[in-house]
Structures are given as C-alpha cells and as structure tokens.
Amino acid sequence: MKLQTVSIFVDDQQQALEFYTGTLGFEVTADVPLGEHRWLTVRLGSSAEATEVSLEPKSHPAVAPFTDALAADGIPYCALSVDDVRAEHERLTGLGVTFTQPPTDMGPVIVAVFEDTCGNLLQLAQFTG
C-alpha cells in the first residue's frame, strides 16, 4: 500500500501553483481544467513513487471553517521534511515567505512554520535524533 495523493485546500489555485512550484520546488503532475476549478496536483521530486498533493479549492462549505481554525490556532496543515531547517528558513525568507515560527529546537526535531500564501500554515521538520 502507498499513499498516492493528499489534498491541501487553497484559496486560489493559480496562486498555490505558483507558490508550490516556484517557491517550494514542487513539480506539476496534473493540471486539468474542470469548469471553474482545476484538477491540480504537484509532487516533490520526479520519482513516480512520490506522494502527490492535490491543490484543492476551498469551495466545500466545511473546508473554510476547518482551515481557518487551524490557521487561527497556529496549527500547520502538514509537515515537510528537510535536511536543514535553518538553511531552508533562510532560503525561503529570502524569497519573501512569511514565517510564523522561526527554527525551533524541540528535542528530536527542529521545526519552523510558514504561510503558504493560500490560507495554510506548513511546517518544516528536520529530524535530529
């Protein structure tokens, strides 16, 4: 069994596409027009084994209250593993990314939290132990 696709709900699919590909380095795996929205998926790396992320519009009535509550409470929607949180923090800050939590040592992990420009907080995680 393999996790094929996960969804991140976004305010604006085009803005999300630009951020996730241009800033974070994801690659587009599908971009199919579906009327007002698109089936839009991205992944990190070119491996066919990589989990895809569907950049889903926040059109369902349950989504906005859920994602807004997470953001208001400072809870990241998901975590991205990196080799060096401090270096990635510096790189992303240089690209204008807003961090809500700088790199913080939390024992076996160093984390940082940033805004994805599309209504979500994402966490960088470097496992040290």
Overall outline = globular
Strand coverage percent: 35-45%
Largest sheet: 4 strands, mixed
Helix content: 10-25%
Distance between the termini: 27 Å
Structural class: alpha/beta
Alpha carbon gyration radius: 15 Å
Order of helices and strands: EHEEEHEHEEE
Topology, pairings included?
Layout: E1 5-10, H1 13-23, E2 27-34, E3 37-43, E4 52-57, H2 63-72, E5 78-81, H3 85-94, E6 99-105, E7 109-115, E8 121-127
Parallel strand pairs: 1-4, 5-8
Antiparallel strand pairs: 2-3, 3-4, 6-7, 7-8
Question: Can you describe this structure in just a few lines?
Answer:
This protein has helices at residues 13-23, 63-72, 85-94; strands at residues 5-10, 27-34, 37-43, 52-57, 78-81, 99-105, 109-115, 121-127. With 129 residues, the chain is an alpha/beta fold.
Overview of the structural elements:
The chain is α/β, with parallel strands linked by helices and 129 residues long. The mean pLDDT is 95. It starts with a strand and ends with a strand.
Keyword list:
single chain; 4-stranded mixed beta sheet; 24% helix; globular; 129 residues; 3 helices; alpha/beta
